[in-house]
Amino acid sequence: MSTGHDDQGHDHGHHHHHDHDHDHLHPYDPEHHHPHRADQDDSMTYYRLMEEAVRELMIDKGLVTADDIRAEVEAMDARTPANGALVVARAWTDADFKTRLIASPKEAIAEVGHDIGPMKLIVLENTPEVHNVVVCTLCSCYPRWILGIPPDWYKSRSYRSRVVREPRAVLREFGTEIADNREVRVHDSTADMRYMVLPMRPEGTDSMSEEELAALVHRDSMIGVTEVSV
Amino acid sequence: MARFAVGDRVRVHKQFPPTPPSHIRTPYYVRGHAGIVERICGAFRNPEELAFGRDGAPEIPLYRVRFRQKDLWSDYEGHEDDKIDIEIFEFWLDRAEGSEGETA
Amino acid sequence: MERDFTARGHHDMGGLPAGDIDREEHDYALWEKRVDALMMICTNRLKLMTVDQLRKGIEALPPSAYDDMTYYERWISSVTNTLLERGVFTADELGAKIEEVRARYPDGVMPEGSAGGGC
Fold it and tell me: What is the DSSP code (8-state) at residue B92?
């Protein structure tokens, strides 16, 4: 098995315009190893053409409208880690809410105004004894109905491969040192459940409001690669 | 009806998945290993059928199984109690003997 | 040669050695968000395909393609193949539409605002 392949690949620093016949649905050419990697660039790659073509065919056939797509994009844009941060801050300040959050995440999250749709969520509470961290080794399962689309590194070969086998080393790369006597528990999202970590409330935050607390909670702490600090 | 209960010791099948074009949700690294049922998640449509656009019925009990890291990786560096929790469908599991500790 | 009866798929990478994690992130481009949106609509609303079909299509990519394509390139490739298999549109319709779309970008450049922007 080769190593070191990052799922996000390597930007070779130039763009490669494939001029393929339109019936080649996979214009991948092993002889020309130039990954289409620069997601930020503005070249109209084959797959960007394909997206536009498929979207238009679906619209032409009356299966979707441009507004449907726009609405779906906007709905996803509205799902951000700030939604999760609010849930965490509420759980820190309201013990009954925390109990409900762990017992029935969907209903509890609805209390703070967010609908997690069909997602089956498990909330993993960090404690002085246990630190939780989430991965999907097979693809990229993520609690997107509360936190939005996952970051690039979450989908990378390096993270997916390593965090199940050397979680402490991976956490260290994120600047997170877990005490030797504290259990690290990795959660691999392989099927129908999704996971969000409830990080520990940092010391010295007793006087903070829920809003101030929420501002401390970064996305990565809800994946479990970092802890929350002041 | 779920065949296993929370706390039961189970072992993951070590079978060959005909990939591609099949599709399974049981990673290689847990196959053949034993762990403890942490919870029953409910019953869900079978992904191995859904992958072909079929309806995935009937629903299959889905478990979260907890493995000790040092049982999965002989050279595991870390806490003795470090664990991995992972969802596994019932048809991938057999009852395993013993309680604590395992042999692959 | 004896067959490895516990063979793993290329995507099934848990536990394999790999390099440091590249933590640089990019903002998702509009076209990527549209791929995501199309997939959600096809599965949740239209019931034209399942998430497991998306995954199966991605897992069936040759390993080198799996590694080289970006995340949403893998998605649109798998969604498109699944919709073709299902007969939502034909290969001829798709080919003609791709050429039609390509003709809109004679310089091979995306319209402003749809490429994504900085991190």
Answer: G
